[in-house]
Design goal:
This is ATP-dependent RNA helicase DQX1. This protein is globular. A six-stranded parallel beta sheet has the order 6-13-10-7-9-8, with helices on both faces. It has a three-stranded mixed beta sheet with strand order 2-1-3. Helix 4 crosses helix 5, helix 8 packs across helix 9 and helix 11 packs antiparallel against helix 12. 34% of the residues lie in helices and 18% in strands. The chain is an alpha/beta fold and 387 residues long.
């Protein structure tokens, strides 16, 4: 790492001029965290691999559109898009002609799905009870539990640890492990062997969304899916974000199911089959249609893409939403009279935060309250930045 292999992720940046292979997150590449600016796309990069595009984040959708345009200018550049079978047709239509398709055989056995609609109004309590019920069966195998948010993961982790103390020792020990972005590089400990001299030990991995694609845990036999997620949705009428609980998509539910790697794997869905069929959308809604696009427009301005129509999106935002983002940037003095980035706007584009927060940090220098504003910015962006 740092030699032939470079890495730029949220919790570290290890790059070198001699690197032949780079591993970056979409967010890092989007904001030039030692990657987008240091890598010379026109003559150095030969292959770009976009993984986990099913997540449909703003960063991945933007990169897909920009790289599609780059491949037109550089025919020798190879763009590899990794997706699930359910999104294959959509990406083929977007990338147009000349696309080769390589299908990789998945696991032969499909886990059994058991619908178990909970009567409890508290999803954390219902999930905790299901973990204990599975453990009391006495059959071997680790458990992967999907919850809606980081707060629910922390609550459930604490509840399982308390309840595990009252279980019969003959069942073996129960060890909960929270998979959270805020854990940083320490999250790699899930791959390290755990020492236990008292007998059998069952791991319970608790996550909310990052375990759907980011981890390969071979010992998983049971998957417990609460079927909900916590998302931040921008309301353009009031120009504010709202945090809402919403059902996951059918595609995401199926993706969670196959995380049970054992031949006799089981997926317990803590909702009814009718809820799955009628309440869940087929695919995950793209985040580019749900977020405040001021930050995206600021980046496009920095990339000298003045006309938003020049950027090809898999799902194009409504024109009025883009115009509102321009109005917000103009109000923050990020644009000059000609609609280009002002000096303040250029500085704001270097800060990987929402424009409102980056402008507040700059204004704090004038009013000599930088420390206080940094604290507020950390509180407002903690979950986004993983700190």
């Amino acid at each position: 790492m740092g030699g032939i292999m470079a890495e730029s992720v949220r919790w570290g940046n290890v790059t070198a001029e001699s690197a032949r292979w780079g591993n970056v997150t979409a967010e890092s590449a989007r904001w030039g965290n030692g990657t987008a600016e240091s890598v010379r796309w026109d003559n150095e990069v030969g292959v770009v691999i976009l993984d986990e595009v099913d997540e449909r984040t703003v960063a991945s959708d933007l990169l897909l559109g920009l790289l599609k345009d780059v491949t037109r200018q550089r025919p020798l550049l190879r763009l590899v898009v990794m997706t699930s079978p359910g999104m294959e047709k959509r990406f083929l239509e977007f990338l147009e002609d000349g696309v080769s398709v390589v299908r990789i055989q998945g696991q032969e056995t499909v886990p059994q799905v058991v619908y178990h609609a909970s009567q409890s109004h508290d999803p954390v309590l219902a999930a905790c009870h299901m973990v204990l019920d599975v453990h009391r069966l006495g059959d071997p195998g680790d458990i992967l539990l999907f919850l809606a948010s980081e707060e629910e993961v922390v609550r459930c982790n604490a509840a399982v640890m308390v309840e595990a103390l009252s279980l019969s020792p003959s069942l073996g020990s129960l060890m909960p492990l929270a998979l959270l972005p805020s854990a940083g590089s320490a999250i790699q400990s899930v791959y390290e062997p755990q020492q236990n001299e008292s007998g059998y030990q069952r791991h319970v991995f608790l996550a909310y969304n990052m375990a759907e694609l980011s981890f390969s845990l071979p010992g998983i036999r049971y998957v417990i899916d609460t079927g909900s997620e916590l998302q931040t949705v921008y309301n353009p009428r009031i120009r504010a974000d709202s945090v809402v609980y919403q059902p996951i998509s059918k595609a995401k539910a199926k993706m969670r199911t196959i995380r049970a790697r054992a031949n006799d794997g089981l997926c317990y869905r803590l909702y009814s089959e009718s809820y799955f069929q009628t309440q869940m959308p087929d695919v995950t809604p793209p985040r580019i249609l749900q977020e405040n696009l001021s930050r995206l427009v600021l980046l496009l301005k920095r990339l000298d893409i003045a006309d938003m129509g020049q950027c090809d999106f898999l799902d194009r935002p409504a024109p009025e939403i883009l115009m509102q983002a321009l109005e917000d940037l103009d109000y923050l003095a990020a644009l000059d009279d000609d609609g280009n980035l002002s000096e303040v706007g250029i500085i704001m584009s270097e800060i990987p935060l929402d424009p409102q927060i980056s402008k507040s940090l700059l204004a704090a220098c004038e009013f000599q309250c930088v420390s206080e504003m940094v604290t507020l910015a950390s509180m407002l962006t903690g979950n986004k930045c993983g700190n």
